[in-house]
Design goal:
Blueprint lengths: L15 H11 L1 E3 L5 E3 L3 E4 L4 E8 L5 E5 L5 E4 L10 E6 L3 E6 L8 E8 L4 E10 L4 E6 L4 E2 L3 E11 L4 E6 L2 E3 L2 E7 L2 E11 L8 E8 L2 E9 L2 E13 L11 E10 L4 E6 L8 E4 L2 E4 L8 E8 L4 E8 L14 E3 L14 H43 L4 E3 L11 H7 L12 E3 L1
Parallel strand pairs: 3-10, 12-20
Antiparallel strand pairs: 1-2, 2-4, 4-8, 5-6, 5-9, 7-8, 9-10, 11-13, 13-17, 14-15, 14-18, 16-17, 18-19, 20-21, 21-24, 22-25, 23-24, 25-26, 26-27, 28-29
């Protein structure tokens, strides 16, 4: 709806502020004859077409005219006094004057007045607002090629827009937060947003997008693809025997694969904490032992390196007897990370299976130890209880031996016993 309405005559100076306030809220002029003068504000993108409409409700055929911000008459009825061919009559009637303005520029912005020749004359204004989309959208990146773990700086600039634009950042589908600065030159705004990003190997080839939020344009964006260098990721696989036991006399074949950026150029096999057996054949990324024996037991390591760094993966070899049917859990692959970043990149499933087997073996040993301790404790308790009951069985004394302590021999002791044989039926026992 329109802004303030300004009467060209009529009310005295004291009523003018109140009238202006009412007209600003209503954006409709009610004439003395009951006619309503109506218009609306216009927002247009630079270079597009703006349409200005002056309408009269309850018209009595009064003259309508349109004036520019400099109070120059653009149209009087259907006549155009102003020599600017960009203004074209769209519709003229007793109730409407509609005019189009083509190829709108920032200089066309301002208030345009609709006047109705009544007594007294009345007018209302409409405001044309011109939007200017960003002239250019550019991403500058601090380093074209980064190394994993580094922080890089990206700057996105949207130039000469009106109003100032809002810049948003995305890495793939994830929105990130940048820091923006706005510079104004005349009526135009230049916005620069800075993004600081720590990159990893997973960011290689991922697009970083700078997107603009502006009322004059939709889906305006630009992007740069990240290029990240990272040290190798190494994996060892067992080609033969396939998921079988490594028995004496049988062959073993291992393959080492390494991936990195740039692609690893140096790859080698070695035996950890010992010399490589002479009968081991190393051909590029492959290691072959044609006839396994117990002396081959140990850890075999594949190392790979590139311009960024070095990584490795280990294979723990245990050679079994020819009669072995069950493989201990300690046999298999291990991968010892060279840095915290490599913890996110696991080794083969065989390595995980070996680790789980080690855990199960440790659990069984712990359970066996606990059971042994419990059995030993129970045996000790039984021995102690047995000795205790043996010592507290009780002692029985009778009067049969009374006086026997002073006898010289057994016959005398019997004779001296109280009561002798005649009183044998009166013997009594006492429990102490």
């Amino acid at each position: 709806m329109a802004g303030r309405a300004q009467p060209s005559g009529g009310p005295g100076p004291g009523l003018l502020p109140l009238l202006l306030l009412l007209l600003s809220a209503a954006a409709v002029i009610r004439t003395g004859d009951g006619q309503n003068l109506v218009t609306e504000d216009v927002t247009v993108v630079e270079g597009d077409v703006a349409t200005i409409s002056c309408r009269v409700k309850n018209s009595d055929d009064s003259v309508i005219q349109l004036l520019n911000p400099n109070r120059q008459t653009i149209y009087f009825r259907d006549f155009r006094p102003l020599k600017d061919s960009r203004f074209q009559l769209v519709n003229f009637s007793n109730s409407e004057l509609r005019v189009s303005l083509t190829n709108v520029s920032v200089s066309d912005e301002g208030r345009y007045f609709c006047q109705l020749y009544t007594d007294p004359p009345q007018e209302i204004y409409t405001t044309i607002t011109v939007l200017v989309p960003p002239r250019n959208l550019v991403i500058d990146i601090q380093k074209e090629v980064a190394v994993e773990g580094e922080e890089i700086e990206l700057n996105c600039t949207a130039m000469a827009s009106r109003p100032a634009t809002t810049i948003r950042w995305f890495k793939g589908n994830k929105e990130l937060t940048g820091k923006s600065e706005v510079e104004q030159w005349l009526d135009m705004y230049t916005v620069t947003s800075q993004l600081v990003l720590k990159v990893g190997r997973e960011d290689d080839g991922v697009p970083v997008i700078c997107l603009v939020d502006h009322p004059a344009v939709k889906d305006l964006q630009t992007q740069r693809y990240l290029e990240v260098m990272y040290k190798p990721q190494v994996r060892v696989s067992q080609n033969y025997p396939v998921q079988g036991l490594t028995r004496e006399g049988e062959p073993l074949e291992l393959t080492c694969a390494a991936f990195g950026k740039p692609q690893p150029t140096d790859m080698r096999w070695l035996r950890v904490d010992d010399e490589m057996p002479q009968h081991v054949v190393v051909s590029g990324s492959n290691l072959l032992i044609s006839n396994l024996n117990k002396t081959d037991n140990g850890t075999y390591r594949c190392e790979a390196s590139n311009a960024v760094g070095k990584s490795h993966a280990d294979y723990m070899l245990f050679v079994y007897d020819t009669t072995a049917t069950t493989e201990p859990a300690v046999h298999g692959f291990t991968h010892l990370p060279n840095s915290a970043e490599e913890l996110d990149y696991g080794d083969l499933s065989d390595s995980r299976a070996g680790e789980e087997g080690v855990i199960r073996s440790v659990d069984h040993a712990v359970v066996g130890g606990v059971v042994a301790v419990v059995v030993f404790a129970m045996l000790c308790l039984l021995i102690i209880l047995g000795r205790y009951f043996a010592r507290h069985k009780g002692t029985y004394f009778t009067h049969e031996a009374k006086g026997a302590d002073d006898a010289a021999d057994a016959d005398t002791a019997i004779i001296n016993a109280e009561g002798g044989q005649n009183n044998s039926e009166e013997k009594k026992e006492y429990f102490i």
